[in-house]
Amino acid sequence: QEKSCCLSTALLGEDSEISQEQLFELLKYAALGECHDAAQPSWCHIYHQSHLAGVVVVVLHGTSQLHFYRFYLQFKHLRKVFRHRFTLTPSANFPVSLYGEGTNLKPQNTAQGLTSTSSECITKSSDLKWDPIIQRYGEKKQGLTSYTLTLEEQKKNDYPTEGSPGCKGFISTECDQQRTDSSPLFGLDCEMCLTAKGNEVTRVSLVDAQGQCLLNELVKPESTVVNYRTRFSGITKKMLLPVKTRLSDIQARLKKMLPHDAVLVGHSLNSDLQALEMIHPSVIDTSLLFARSEGRRFKLKFLAKAVLGKEIQCEQRIGHDPTEDARAALELAQFFIEQGPTKVVAELNLEMLLTAEKLAEVSQNKAALQPQGCGFQEQLNEPPHLSKSCFLDCLQVTGQKPLLLGRQGLDSSGLCQSNVSTSNKQILQRALEDVPLSKFSIIQFSLGPEHVASHLHAGLHEKVRSKLTDMLTIYAGPFGNNFCMKSVKKEFGRCGPIQSVTVVTETFQPFVCIQYEVLEAAQLAVERLNGAEVAGSCIEVQRQVTAAMLDCNALIKELELDVENEGVIYVAGLKKSLTETDLQEEFSQLKDLETLFLPKDLQSGKHRNYCFLKFQNSQSAVDALEALNGWTMRGGELRSRNALAAGHLWRWIQQMNDSNGKKGKHIFYEQMEQLSNSEQELRRKVKTLDHHIKKLYRSLQSNTLCVVLFPGVNSTHGSQAGLGLMGIKDDEGRSAC
């Protein structure tokens, strides 16, 4: 009897973002198994890989997560079949990046760090423009003033600035902003301990442009230390006992030491200045200088090794050395300024090096579990090799020639069977004929000309953001004229985290407008509190009725039935004092509980007052909802319902909440009429495309791995992350496990 292949992932919540290199890792293992150095992916697991009938990758060119959620109801087949989904870092052209020649992730330890001496590793100039560093700074080499943060950038990244909330009493360095490209650079780093007041400085280091240490001082915090964080800070109780220096002393010394045009350099320098309670107008932040997409940042330890060839923050040493960290940040800024953005991007390939380094760590962890003398140690001398051209070569060695179908000739390597078609319908017909004959296929469909997709992108972004905001917002009332706002916040807060509360004054009696952070909370408020007595009044709870919200109930219902939400429930009303361990213990009596996901605040790192519970099957989730009805935990009443936005969608909503909607807004209003007309046509195309994928999927053999990619968008109107949906087809035509 033939074994069924199965796929499992652990992608619920914040861990659902996958890089292209991790995706290549999966595709390589699926196609080759354990031969040719292919390894089981670290982020998912394929069971019985040898029984896979084939691998099919469907690429929806020019699309992103934005398109999936804007046309969620139209993608009827995709959302009902594929249970595994993940956020994908955006790609300018996925098939080209997969089949392109000379892209190699193998780093070599050179004098410059992890950079490779191979000319093949240099990024093609045509791809440079899509890199976040180039998009931010341009390709030309510039002076240091071009890399200092503007006042708006400082405010956006939580730097203390004059007049900002929370900066009352902060000391200014009194350096003016008359900086030039020859202004002196100073590296700054602080170590903090946790006190009754919060994070307080306990050590400060300052180095000059030559790397000479000007200041390396221990500081006595004002409040009692709660946690010395010795593992990271290197500070102990014994070290601080004889210290007399206070924060005010350090502030005075820094003011005296820094010249009027000084430029401070640091890695996430905002944290240091906040802890120092100081304001400085000219800063270079290396965590932002070496820019990444989606607001992610490289760690200082990685940059020091990859760019400078230096090992810092070594595990053998207790705690970080602030002087070492300050010097590393300074040298990184100097390297960037001297080399310029183009050279940094073209020669370093930081994203690839980071992936290779992580994979090397995984290999080392596996090696530690191997018995001595097994020969595995020899493999650790080289990090994993993920050359994409090597991937194609391996497929050919095994007698597999990949199939590539699309509207344009995307493979110039000669390693693929390439067939160019003129329409999606023609591509589908060729796929139905050719895919069964190939073990590895990439099918690329398109929603239309690339310039049209780019043209509509800004408007679509604003429409999705606006609709999400409307779905997260509820109106409650009427209340008495002297109602207690605290009671209202408390009652509605039991449904989940509140983003904002405002009083509606245009009505005869006051109403309250509440915007939640998650969809489940807003829906729970509508379901539980409509008709309830709150703050002494019997109230109605409803969403605003607009043209865009007329299909809200249908959308909520489809989200609830989404295959990704099977067996997942949302629970609110948790006490923030409860730890994840406490919750695991409290919920352990629920039958077939598989995973508990406790979201954290993206800024503070503290967990929220709600969680998601994933069960092994839908019936267990239904039973759990019944059991949790009226359940109290440590004095708090729990409220629960079926999940609407579990997994990567929860993370995506957080990013949309953080968006202020300013980017591309002028484009949105100027093109509103054209967008409306074009979107109707786009809806029709999406529905047809979904039908094409359904037809293709039904034609696949059982045990075929199918991956559908919205590769993401990089354009002048902005960047949007991609989305991946995947599953292994079972005998009944669905995505297996």
From TrEMBL:
Nuclease recorded as keyword: yes
KW Iron-sulfur (keyword) present: no
Ranges where the RRM domain occurs: 472-546, 567-645
Superkingdom as given in the UniProt entry: Eukaryota
InterPro entries the record matches: Nucleotide-bd_a/b_plait_sf, RBD_domain_sf, REX1-like_exo, REXO1/3/4-like, Ribonucl_H, RNaseH-like_sf, RNaseH_sf, RRM_dom
Chain coiled-coil ranges: none
Pfam families: RNase_T, RRM_1
Keywords: Exonuclease, Hydrolase, Nuclease, RNA-binding
Assigned GO CC terms: nucleus
A single GO molecular function term of this UniProt record: exonuclease activity
UniProt-listed PANTHER family: RNA EXONUCLEASE 5 (PTHR12801:SF82), RNA EXONUCLEASE REXO1 / RECO3 FAMILY MEMBER-RELATED (PTHR12801)
Identification of the protein by name: REXO5 exonuclease
